[in-house]
């Protein structure tokens, strides 16, 4: 099984959506090949997942059980799950200096606009979260549809970066 870590700055919206969605989609495979996690480069003190992210997931029938905001330091610590793929989902996190991940995982940047940013009405924000989840779903379905030979460590770097282009 390949471990995928989705990174964003606060680990409250996009990375949370990606973690939950990939775990949901992978669980539907006959033999799940992926396990997703998420983290932030600088989550705020007492940071929680954005309520609209949790509502969007629940409305889509995706479990929110166990989702929490956490620092990427948690995954760079001894005893943390080994990551095979690390994907930044916001432009701020993509430009930051990441920890050195044990095992040198494949990395990619899959940028998405922040659905919680801006002066949006509640309806507009709800729509922005749905659109983000939908866009992520398309890319994650492509990842899940890849044949196993494309997921071999030697090819993984090019494979995940290729999926970054819409």
UniProtKB/TrEMBL annotation:
SUPFAM superfamilies: Phosphotyrosine protein phosphatases I. It comes from the Bacteria. Residues 2-146 form the Phosphotyrosine protein phosphatase I domain. GO terms for biological process: response to arsenic-containing substance. Keywords: Arsenical resistance. The keyword Thylakoid does not apply. InterPro entries: Ptyr_pPase (IPR023485), Ptyr_pPase_sf (IPR036196). The keyword GTP-binding does not apply. Pfam families: LMWPc (PF01451). This is Protein-tyrosine-phosphatase. It comes from Simplicispira metamorpha.
